[in-house]
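Final report, closing paragraph on structural work. Over the funding period we assembled a curated collection of sequence-structure pairs, and we close with a single example.
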Amino acid sequence: ESLCFSNASFVSVLFNESLHHVAVDKQIEALRETHRVLKPGGRLLITEPICDSGSFGQILKFCNDEKEQKLNAINAIDSVINSEFKLSLKKEIHIEYHCKDFDDLYENTIKSMPYVNWNESNKQDITNILKRCDKTPEGDSIIDYFAFVWLLIKI
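Its predicted structure, as stored:
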């Protein structure tokens, strides 16, 4: 779908771990529409989680399998490089955050994700993952995952 902005309206656009939430058959279209609203030389910054990476990726497999969407998002980004955007940077980053226990993770993360298919039987599997995580000095579990970051420049 088209954005309600004029051509060349923005100097930068950010997709922060969101492109994989766009319907698979609309991801390239979303990037092309972003190209349309960027000014010449405009910048598109994209972060996308790497599927199944880190402890958080393992946890998400129990309640939300987005592997196809995430892989397709990466392919969609690759497909517009050199045709609509010049690649300025691609980097893998490590992201981590802390939770006290399963209830903390559930209340502050899992429950807030509207697209999660929660099944109570997964609680023990997730608790086991949390037990294997590194701990902070305070005893919190360190949940982590990896993501790619792209900085693309409009051609």
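The two ends are 22 Å apart (CA to CA). Residues 28 and 76 are 5 Å apart (CA to CA). We thank the funder for supporting this effort.
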